[in-house]
User: Fold this.
Amino acid sequence: MMGRSITKRLLETLREEIALASSLDIIISFVRFSGVILLLDDLKKAIARGTKIRLLTATYLGITEPYALTVLKNELTSSLDMRFFNDKTKSFHPKAFFFDDKMILGSSNLSESALTDGIEWNYMIVEDLDSIRTFHNEFEMLFSSAIPCNEKTIANYAKSRRPYRTIE
Assistant:
């Protein structure tokens, strides 16, 4: 697999890649407001340039924060296609960011600690289009069967949410 480990903070790498991307697909287990706020301006600038953004997340363990999803929906409006993974019989724990012909695969969720100073391992895959395509095909399959995140589905999630205790 051709790529490179990400030795600087993931936040810096994401900002650089978002600034260049014409498309961005994110599959991430947990979305926290602390991570959303760090990338929100970068995502807004990308959308203003015409970047297509899709995000697949989950309600798994109740860690994803409804407020974080609401902020993304409100701030990025119809330019963001955001969905919930829809299989209650399986855990959902992937973490990848797809940028045109690159991807970052690793352990980081969308939270401040994961993007800045947490102990996380992330790897950027470049030039290995077969591997990127394999992962992205899986993303496409999961995304196509996912439930759209809208005001109603986010509200329903917020009502039924029983957050698992986290250290962040």
